[in-house]
Write a structure and sequence with these properties.
Layout (H helix, E strand, L loop, with lengths): L4 H23 L16 E10 L5 E6 L2 E7 L4 E9 L5 E8 L7 E8 L5 E8 L3 E7 L1
Antiparallel strand pairs: 1-4, 1-6, 2-3, 2-5, 5-8, 6-7
């Protein structure tokens, strides 16, 4: 065996330190870091939601991030609401809860949303019984 183990260890630590500095600079680019528990602010936008049903439900509820946006009892065959909610560029997840009448056959709900930029988005919810569905819009 040639050379001093202590000298080899010092050279290895020196190489690691030299490579660690550029790696630290790449991973810590100075991007803004939010405090723990703080949520990024997204612009609040006016969004129009229209629901059309194949069978009139007993109750419909729409929520966003755990907050109920609206609830309607016996809405009939269609329902339309306009609301303001945070709309990030990635879109939103809306939680739909639909309670169909007892013993109802397979039923569907068409969800039509018009985003803040005026684009229309269509989604559908199918179920034979109570439905809980999360739809991602844009």
């Amino acid at each position: 065996m040639r050379g001093s183990p202590l000298l080899r260890a010092l050279v290895a630590f020196g190489v690691i330190a030299l490579l660690g500095w550029p790696l630290w600079r790449l991973t810590n680019s100075g991007a803004a870091v939010l405090p723990i528990g703080a949520a990024p602010t997204n612009p609040v936008a006016r969004v129009q939601i229209a629901l059309t049903f194949t069978l009139p439900p007993r109750k419909v509820s729409v929520a966003h991030l755990g907050r109920v946006l609206f609830t309607a009892e016996a809405p009939g065959s269609s329902l339309e609401r306009e609301m303001e909610l945070p709309w990030p560029k990635e879109g939103v997840d809306l939680h739909f809860t639909i309670d169909w009448p007892a013993g109802a056959p397979l039923a569907a709900a068409r969800v039509r949303a018009i985003d803040p930029e005026g684009r229309e988005h269509d989604k559908s919810i199918w179920s034979a019984g109570p439905a809980e569905e999360v739809l991602t819009l844009p």
